[in-house]
Structure formats: C-alpha cells, structure tokens
C-alpha cells in the first residue's frame, strides 16, 4: 500500500478511511495534504471493493484551513500559475460517496473540503467557518460557491464577510450538516452511515451521486434529463434485477456491483 506523509488510510469492509494527520498544524491543508488526499481518494475510487469513503481529522480539528504559512509569501502570479488548490477538483470529482466526519474546527479550506464531500456529519464540538476575510483574502477552494449552494446567499454572506464561525447545531439548522452527534460517538456513527451506503449497489451509488451533483451544477431541465437517463440506464444492471427480485422475494438483496 502507498505510504502517505500527511494522512492515515485504512480499509474496513467496503469503507475506505482517510484521516488527516498533521496534529501540530491542526491539519492545515498544505500541498502535500492535497496530494495525499487526492491520491488516496482516487485509489479508493478506482477500487470496486470500496463503496464509501470517510474523511476525518482529529478531535480538535477536521482541518483549520489551507496552510497559511505555506501561502503567505506567494505572489498572485505564483498562486495562479501553480494552480495552488487545483488538484482538489480531482477529490471533488470522486464518484464514490464521501462522508466528512467533522470534529472541532472546519475552517476555510477545512470547511471547503467538508463541502466537497457528499454528507457532512458533525460532532457537537464542530465549528464551521470561512475566516479568510480576516486574513485579507477570500475563500479559494470553492467556499463562496459551495456555501451559497449549501446554506443560501444570506447565511453564506454572513460567514464569508464577517468570518464568524457556526456551531454544529447552527450548521445543521443551516443545512450544511445532516446529523449532529456527541463527539465520542462521531466515528462509530460515521462508520455506520458509511457501511449502510457501501452495502448498496455501487453502480446505483455512482448514478445517484452524479445526479445529485447535476442538481447543483445544471438547470432543472438538464438535471431532470440527466436523472431520467441515469434511472433508465440502471435497468441494464445486474443489481437492479437483484434489488427488485429481492424485494419481490422478501429477502435482503445481494448486490454484485455490476
Ligand atoms: N495554517 C497553518 N498553520 C495553522 C493553521 C493554518 N490554517 N491553523 C492553525 N495552524 C497552526 C498554528 O499556527 C499553530 O502552530 P504553532 O504551534 O507552530 O504556532 C498550531 O496550528 C495550533 O494552532 P493555534 O495555536 O492557533 O491553536 P488555537 O487553539 O489557539 O486556535 C484556531 C485554533 C482558532 C483554529 C487558529 O489556529 C486559527 O485561527 N487558525 C487559522 C484559521 C484560518 O484562518 N483558516 C483559513 C485559512 S486560509 C484558507 O483556508 C484559504 C482557502 O480558502 C483555501
């Protein structure tokens, strides 16, 4: 298995785990973290034995943002020419469902990384925010775009313009977080959710994720067309036959992910 410098990876059943591991920097996302996470997620995504991915951090921090110390001395030309955060696009494009299990700080790039995932589960200790404005910059890993889509323009503007943080409960009320969990139970709950997803047909999961993405990326008419095509396409899979036969025969389905 590949060695990574800044993350720990583990496979449990059909679930791939990525744990950010820069404790001294509150998991700040430097270029090496980006390379490691993108590579690990890509490897899980290419493996049909993996049906869900969990990304998590430490109790204290999911990630406290992009690495300020790495960026501080750069020029605008360097940020552009290096496409400093560009590779994160490959993480966002992973086809396998990804769950962010967030404890502690999810700030700046940390909040943006969580928003690249499909589901955000939060410990009651979690704090979300886009504090870049206090550094004299703005979110640069998708925050202004994904936050508006996640919580609407007014809550997003409140966070992006003031830099204030949301508690886990506030984030849940705003629609960013789907479940708030006592901190001690976060990983167990993430495992349960990930296992429940990974037990489903991987072909159907890919289609579901792509259709959900289409909803935020396209018009309603295009999204509906995409959904209709994807829905029909699934009727050529073994898993559709198995899922519906299992329903008729009143037994659990045994998906082969084909
Ligand atoms: N980059 C680099 N290092 C960071 C970091 C970051 N984003 N966040 C924390 N660290 C480092 C600190 O510098 C400190 O290291 P040293 O011990 O070597 O000084 C270590 O992590 C622990 O942090 P603190 O001592 O500050 O811990 P705290 O409990 O007092 O405060 C905190 C925690 C409120 C999260 C505070 O660390 C903080 O405000 N961090 C920065 C948050 C931020 O501004 N994030 C946005 C970054 S820019 C960005 O993300 C751009 C984008 O859109 C992609």
Automatic annotation (TrEMBL):
<dbReference type="InterPro" id="IPR001753">
    <property type="entry name" value="Enoyl-CoA_hydra/iso"/>
</dbReference>
<dbReference type="InterPro" id="IPR014748">
    <property type="entry name" value="Enoyl-CoA_hydra_C"/>
</dbReference>
<comment type="similarity">
    <text>Belongs to the enoyl-CoA hydratase/isomerase family.</text>
</comment>
<keyword id="KW-0456">Lyase</keyword>
<dbReference type="InterPro" id="IPR029045">
    <property type="entry name" value="ClpP/crotonase-like_dom_sf"/>
</dbReference>
<dbReference type="InterPro" id="IPR018376">
    <property type="entry name" value="Enoyl-CoA_hyd/isom_CS"/>
</dbReference>
<protein>
    <submittedName>
        <fullName>Enoyl-CoA hydratase/isomerase family protein</fullName>
    </submittedName>
</protein>
<dbReference type="Pfam" id="PF00378">
    <property type="entry name" value="ECH_1"/>
</dbReference>
């Amino acid at each position: 298995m590949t060695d990574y410098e800044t993350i720990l990876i583990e496979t449990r059943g059909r679930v791939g785990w990525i744990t950010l591991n820069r404790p001294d920097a509150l998991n700040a996302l430097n270029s090496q973290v980006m390379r490691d996470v993108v590579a690990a997620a890509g490897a899980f995504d290419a493996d049909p034995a993996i049906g869900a991915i969990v990304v998590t951090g430490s109790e204290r921090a999911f990630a406290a943002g992009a690495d300020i110390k790495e960026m501080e001395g750069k020029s605008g030309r360097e940020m552009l020419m290096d496409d400093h955060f560009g590779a994160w696009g490959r993480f966002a494009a992973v086809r396998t469902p990804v769950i962010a299990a967030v404890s502690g700080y999810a700030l700046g790039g940390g909040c943006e990384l969580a928003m690249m995932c499909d589901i955000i589960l939060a410990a009651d200790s979690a704090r979300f925010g886009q504090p870049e404005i206090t550094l004299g910059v703005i979110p640069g890993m998708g925050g202004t775009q994904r936050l508006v889509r996640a919580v609407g323009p007014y809550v997003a503007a409140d966070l992006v313009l003031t830099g204030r943080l949301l508690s886990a409960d506030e984030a849940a009320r705003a629609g960013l977080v789907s479940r708030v969990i006592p901190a001690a139970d976060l990983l167990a709950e993430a495992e349960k959710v990930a296992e429940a997803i990974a037990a489903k047909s991987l072909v159907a999961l890919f289609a579901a994720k792509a259709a959900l993405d289409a909803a935020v990326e396209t018009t309603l008419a295009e999204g509906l067309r995409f959904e209709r095509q994807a829905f029909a396409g699934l009727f050529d899979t073994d898993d559709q036959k198995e899922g519906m036969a299992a329903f008729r025969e009143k037994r659990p389905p045994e998906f082969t992910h084909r």
